[in-house]
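anyone seen this seq b4? input:
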Amino acid sequence: MPKPDPRVLARTAGNYLKEHPEEIVRALRSALGLRASIPMDALRYLAREFVPDNKKAPKDIVIEAAPPGVRIAATVDAMGTPLRASLILHIEEIAISLTEMRIGVRIEGLTLTVLGDSSSPLAGLLKSGALDLSKPGNLVAFMPKRPPMLVEAKDDRLTLDLMKVPKIAENPKVRRYLSIVLPVASVRAIRTKDDHLDVHLKANLGGLSQAIAAARQTV
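predicted toks r here
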């Protein structure tokens, strides 16, 4: 995966704001409402620029707002079977602490379309309709190699804990930043609206002294 260059990201963001000055007003309005409003164009840019260009990586990625969720489509290779996958992702649970970064998502409208004339076992199951795509969590639960961050999969719901990923859990910067931010702010919800991803925050001014103390310890 290409490593992001902060200077390139800053220049790209600056050019985008020049072309879309209304985003500055929206950002200020959102901040007053304790929200961070991220244009979907930013997510599309990241997917376009930083998804690895190799055989196993998703291709032709589409990201769209489907309020309150996000519609995602991509061409993927699953067990040697080329597929066009599409779904709507709803983020329904967020619990972040120093020991867990738990995210509960619900998958709606999953479709898997076989591309070409593949005759693999998976292609046969999909073409016959034998797989129940309305409950993708049950399918994921039977994966032989589940990623460590996947802690629960049932029906149309998946629960992830990013702290199960060693690179995140063992990164001292992650724990340092969390110890500063969590006493004063937490994520209440993540929803889409008007082609934007809105991160709704909850403030706690009572934890300001704890945040300051944590910040001093990191200096």
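The first helix runs from residue 6 to 19. The helical segments are 6-19, 22-32, 40-50, 121-128, 136-141, 166-169, 172-181, 208-218. kinda curious what u guys think
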